[in-house]
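Researcher: I've been going back and forth with a colleague about how Protein-tyrosine-phosphatase might be arranged in three dimensions. Neither of us has a model we trust, so I'd like an independent prediction. The organism is Laccaria amethystina LaAM-08-1, in case that matters for your notes. Sequence below.
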Amino acid sequence: MSSTPNLKEIPAWLSASITRKHLRRVVTALRERESKREAARSASRKADAAPPTHSSRAGQFFASLRHPKPGRNVDEHYNILTGCQVEHLPKNRYLDLEPYDRTRVLVGEEGRYLHASWVLERFGHKWWIAAQAPLPSTSHAFLSVILQPSTRPPDHLLGGSHASNPHSRWGRVRTVVQLTQNVEGGRRKAHAYFPDGVGKSMIIPVEHGSQAPALKVTLIDARAFKEAHCIQSTVAIVPVAHPPTGVSAGSFEDMEVDEGVDEERYGEHNEERILFHHLLYTSWPDHGVPETEDRASLLAFLRLVDETNRDTSLVGQLSDVDPDPPIIVGCSAGIGRTGSFIAISSLLRSLNVLPPPASPSPSSVLPTSPLGSLPPELAEDCVAQEVDSLREQRPGMVQRDEQIVLIYQTVIDALQAWS
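Model: Here is an independent structure prediction for Protein-tyrosine-phosphatase. You can compare it with whatever you and your colleague have in mind.
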């Protein structure tokens, strides 16, 4: 593959977007807009404690949101009040990083808290769940999303008549993408919520206040995809009525257990056994991007994720199976690598490199940003538009400037490789 893009093989907007001058313009515009969102989020954090100080930058911007144009309900657009509640703070991996209230994922009928957001690709039209990597205190809620018979965005995100579209099928999540190693640079980045040995099981306790049963999680199979730099695991989840002694609600101490002869020793609800695929990409460093020589593996991984999610073998012979359900994707914080991965997937879908989603949602369901449109000179730049749209849905998506550049580079690589 040539290292120099053949501009005749890529769209005009992309050809015009790979100059240093244009990239600086993109980075600056996106940074300024995210700074304004952070000012609003900062004011939201303080909203319950005291009125915002209008002499501050955050206070001035937050006050401006309280005087919207007629018909625009932007009062709560950037609210993060749920994630700031005292009982939820230990469930946030990083300080001052909480999901927007309007896009956050509610777990089960209880509406349990999880640091995860519903995110729609602007140009690819597929829904994702973008999540921080589980903590010991959130592993049960994370797995409970997969146990839900139907996982779909709330009606207010689907928009009007699309909320009851009879042609849309919303099934169970069956694919989890992890873009971080559990430990990187000697620091814990993700809590392991299934065993590392095939055939071994682990009991995951529920948090205090929830009536949900503990979960037994078993690693069924693991295989490596060398070209995609991926380890794919097949994992089973079973609710248990009688967890072993030492596993109690709120203990957050996972316990590995032996299967033994009596496979139902903990009161397993085997009729509720659910399988899912976990795909770990191993070549994306924290706070960075894959090395140039690893970008081919990223493309292979993107395709593998899409193909795996469309594989219905895990659900047997059920007649009404969602052929392409939402995918859970996360890194440590669930914003930098996660946002970049979704953005690349969206653009490759829009350019017919990846297939379209089975039940697409139009970008028109996304609300208009209180910040207005991007500058006119970025109106045709699909990367800038995609990144800005993702940041409207989850704070800090595509966290670093080099990750924005990676999106351009990876789309060009894909068009060259698969044209």
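Researcher: What would you highlight for our discussion?
Model: I'd start with this: The longest helix spans residues 20-46. After that, consider the following. The CA atoms of residues 65 and 75 lie 6 Å apart.
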